[in-house]
Amino acid sequence: MKCKITRNAAKQLAAVLEQEEDKELKLRVYITHAHGNHAHYGLTLDKPTDEDVVVSTDKDIDVIMQKDQELLDGVVIDYLYLPEEGYVITNPSKGNTGDH
Questions:
Q1: Separation of first and last alpha carbons in the chain
Q2: In terms of DSSP H, where are the helices of 2-83?
Q3: Global pTM value
């Protein structure tokens, strides 16, 4: 499985992870709901289970993803400042380029 984190998102996520007391927690990307051929995604801090895979990124942030969720493979985590500040998770490899 693949996951890309942009520079803006990595900066924000590194700050969150550094403040966390439990250093075993990792970033989890999950599907909030899926319909048709795409999904909507969420982020949380969590610990991996037997049903997960931990993906290392080029930003030195490990990401937990559920093994059997094809719509997670290829997600891109970004952090935008405009028009609204916050995380945006898409999966261009599955044709998902943003919420609708």
A1: 25
A2: 7-19
A3: 0.91
